Amino acid sequence: MNNINLKYEEFSLPKLYEKFSSDIFKYSLSILKHYEEAQDAVQEVFVKYAERENSFKKECSQKTWLLIIARSYCYNRLKSKNFNNERLDDSFIQSYTVDFESLMDIRNALLQLSEEFNELIFLKDYSGYSYKEIAEITELSIENVKIKLFRARQQLKKYLSSEL
Amino acid sequence: MKHHEFEISQFLDNELPIVEQKTLFSHLSVCDECSKAMSDLIKIKQGVKSVYDEMHVELKDYSSLTTLLESGRKKRNIYRTMFYTVTAASILLGFFLILLEGNYSSLENKYLQLQSEGSRLQDKYTMALNENKRLSEMNKNNFDKMNFLVAKYKIGEPVTLKSPPMKSATKIIASSNKKRIPTGVMYGSLEKITKEDFLVPQIIGN
Predict the structure, then answer these.
(1) Which residues of A touch B77 (CB under 8 A)?
(2) pLDDT, tens digit (0-9, with 9 covering 90-100), for B105-119
């Protein structure tokens, strides 16, 4: 009998990589703010996912699970001593195919935000997660997510005040 | 007038309850500052999305990941083998220690047994030593008495002993004369009586 209660479609590892590696990269970049570190993060996240696949309890989607692993990896990486702190590297600037001036301003404003605010902005404005899902990923309360997102936007607005 | 930027942020996130949405809209119709804040936030949200959309992502292909996974698997296998080996060794060591404990206790019992036997023999030896001391003392007394008698009575003269100093000493004198002497009277033909003639063999305890 088919299990009709499945909340989401389950993907194999190659399919997952194809589908979500880009998002994982962008999410890692929002925290690490370093292009090459974010590239490495993607590999590490998928290796960790493959290693822990059996312990995945299917309480959330595979993408959310990947994001949780990515978050844990990125924050551990930030704490590690050998983390490359040259965040404003050239590779990051070259990572935009379209060189809109306004986009560059927003990108620069994003780089000025803290890792946490940057992460929340990414999860909400790019990935479109609900407050509840963001709270699950970041281990914050929903109220905290609301407030922190509001503060992050206020800061962005301040950095972009001349452009708005 | 109270501004509603916090509610605007929630509204744009599609998380503001409908009741509060109505309040927000009625406020926006009269507040230019909040209307401007709303349009700014919309621009920022769109800008952020565009930044990530337009981002050039250059990632390694899946084959590089499989290589990583394979090496990770090998490493895990090594760790697993090490884990099982160490576990097996620990179990064996545990059994060995238990067996050793059994042997040790039997050896310990044997040792305690020998120790009690040793102390028993020690006691026996002490008792024998005491007995020997006592007999030596007695022998010395007898010898002194004999010395006294030799000095007192002249050799060759008949000696009348009212009571012999010691039975054993009398026997020795008698056997050296090769004669049977009536009790209480000694006829001596010895030219000289030495101490050795009166020595009673010492009894040494076993």
Answers:
(1) none
(2) 788 888 999 999 999
